[in-house]
Amino acid sequence: MSGIPNSLGVGESRFDRRRRLYGTLFAWMCGAATLVGVVALAVLLMDVLVDGLGRLDYAFLSSFASRFPERAGVRAALAGSIWLLVLTALIAFPVSVAAAVYLEEYAQKSWITKAIQTNIANLAGVPSIVYGILGLALFVRALGLDRSILSGALTLSLLVMPVIIMASQEAVRAVPQTIREAAYGLGATRWQVVSYQVLPMALPGILTGTILALSRAIGETAPLILVGAVGFVAFTPNGVMDEFTVLPLQIYSWISRPQDEFRELAAAGIIVLLLLLLSMNAVAIVLRNRAQVRR
Amino acid sequence: MDRTGAPSRPLLTARTGRHLKERAITAVLFSCAAASTLVTVGVIFVLLRETISFFGEVSIVEFLTSTRWEPMFRDQHFGVLPLLAGSFLIAAGAGLIALPVGLMSAIFLSEYAGLRLRRTLKPILEILAGVPTVVYGYFALTFITPLIRVFLPQTEIFNALSASIVVGLMIIPTVASLSEDALQAVPDSLREGAYGLGATKLEVSTRVVVPSALSGIIASFILGISRAVGETMAVTIAAGNLPNLTLNPLESMQTMTAYIVQASLGDTPQGTIVYQTLFAVGMTLFLITLAMNVLSQWVLARFREEYQ
């Protein structure tokens, strides 16, 4: 520290006063920096609400996309998003939890385990659009699944799996070791310990991580453009091989139009998307709180 | 990790059936974990295959040195530089906003804010991180750009500045939360030692705590920039689709990610050169972000200060 001693008894020196002033200034600057994020979020929400609230009604939710902005709605996109959400959860959840359980409860310390772990961490950092390219080449073209919901769900599953695996690992790790030892002491096999003791205890944590990862997937646009979700669909899907659109893509296609009426539609679509995300997050928070109470 | 010390072999042969079941379950669980490596192999294989065919028609030298990216014109040019410049210029602008703001937020949350304030502020930052990128794009186009044009009327409708600002806002939470973790990991004894020597809170924060957490902070910076480079929708919507080798942030620019979106929105039949550009540009993007992520992990591991 730049330590010129305070002249004792004479009170604060000019040097100390300056140090104190800088300290106060710095504290205020840091506080202001934290507010940047808060203010940005508030302004963003206001911007969207002001533009879109007037367009939001039941007709907007129940109408299909249209060339005429006054008749357009998000029915196909909302249905597509929900189809995609359910399908992605069905594919990604079991595989991710199994992988996490293997890594935490079964894997020996070896270079293979370490390689898998490093690989998962790196996959989590790959830009989402690269997953879209993979989905295009693998699911749409090579496997011939075409521009279907299934292609989209498989692509998004690959995208969210690293996140769900890492969250599940953390939840499994948090289960106290004594629980496992007690179960082994009663003669349980490893799978019995995992399925009857560890997984039920880790489930709230696993579900929280899964829901948060899925809410990221629901907001994704870029990878779905690559696998060929289209901006104009005038029907709700009936099966996994149907063409589809999703909310973010519908919003993007409305933003791309220059007319103000379509901007309002985009804003109203954003409100619907944010409400969907908000309700998913609320479920995650409730689960997290329940998990904390139990410990 | 085998921490359980459970018997891996049954004592009696009568339990062989149960043993087989356990073995089968282990195999299934292992294959799920190993599947994640197949994803990486798949990404690399897919990117490499089409990229190789692409370089069969376009020389690597042209790809890396030509200053024009015009794959859709009759007179085709395949210089990736304008796209690279676009990506990095926007990421640099975003960094200029997010790195100082993110670090200072982290210092505030870790060193200054009380428990109750932290509990309110952190979820807000989490929400900011959870807003879909297409929404940021909308915000840039309908709010930030008009605002810039009030002060700088020569600004184009699609411009790099507005993209930089929203991407910056978007990565503040990444930088702030990772940096805060690093600051929190610094033991209190270091702070107390510095206070004991008569340091003020500012001096403790900037000369003791931040230097001690530097590896984590730098790792968070690299990861934030890597996210900015990989960002797609906000950049596509805000900065437009004009490959443009310029330093002027008020002009429209195309990034690597925006090009991939543009090319895949049109009809691009398999086997055409435009289809292959998707993969060549995707490969470039993948390698750059991978390098940055690995670098960030390396910094974290190499320069970590160990505290007891």
What name goes with the CATH superfamily of the domain at 80-180 and 218-291 in chain B? MetI-like
Q: What oligomerization state is this entry in? A: heterodimer
Largest interface: A-B, 95 and 95 residues
Low-confidence stretches of chain A: none
What string gives the helices and strands of chain A in order? Answer: HHHHHHHHHHH
Helix- and strand-based class of chain A?
Answer: mainly alpha
Number of helices of chain A: 11
Percent strand of chain A: under 5%
Query: How much helicity do the residues of chain B have?
Result: over 70%
Strands of chain B, total number: 2
Termini separation of chain A: 44 Å
Distance between the termini of chain B: 24 Å
List keywords for this structure.
heterodimer, A: 295 residues, mainly alpha, MetI-like fold, 2 domains, 11 helices, B: 308 residues, two-stranded antiparallel sheet, 12 helices, 2 strands, globular
Structural commentary:
The complex is a heterodimer of chains A (295) and B (308). Chain A is an all-alpha fold and 295 residues long. Chain A has two domains: 14-55; 59-294, MetI-like (MetI-like fold), CATH 1.10.3720. Helix content of chain A is 73%, strand content 0%. Chain A has eleven helices and no strands. In chain A, helix 6 (149-173) crosses helix 8 and helix 8 packs antiparallel against helix 11. Chain A is globular, with a radius of gyration of 26 Å. The two termini of chain A are 44 Å apart. The relative contact order of chain A is 0.14. The model of chain A has no long low-confidence stretch (mean pLDDT 88). Chain B has 308 residues and is mainly alpha-helical. Chain B has a domain at 80-180 and 218-291: Orthogonal Bundle (MetI-like fold), CATH 1.10.3720.10. Chain B has helices at residues 16-57, 60-65, 81-112, 115-130, 133-151, 160-184, 188-196, 201-212, 214-230, 233-239, 256-265, 273-302, and strands at residues 69-70, 77-78. Chain B has a two-stranded antiparallel ribbon with strand order 1-2. In chain B, helix 3 (81-112) packs across helix 6 (160-184) and helix 9 (214-230) runs antiparallel to helix 12. The longest helix of chain B is centred in the N-terminal third of the chain and has 42 residues, at 16-57. The radius of gyration of chain B is 25 Å and the shape is globular. Chain B starts with 15 loop residues before the first helix and ends in a 6-residue tail after the last helix. The mean pLDDT of chain B is 89. Classes of the chains: A mainly alpha (295), B mainly alpha (308). At the A-B interface, helix 1, helix 3, helix 4, helix 5 and helix 6 of A face helix 1, helix 3, helix 4, helix 5 and helix 6 of B.
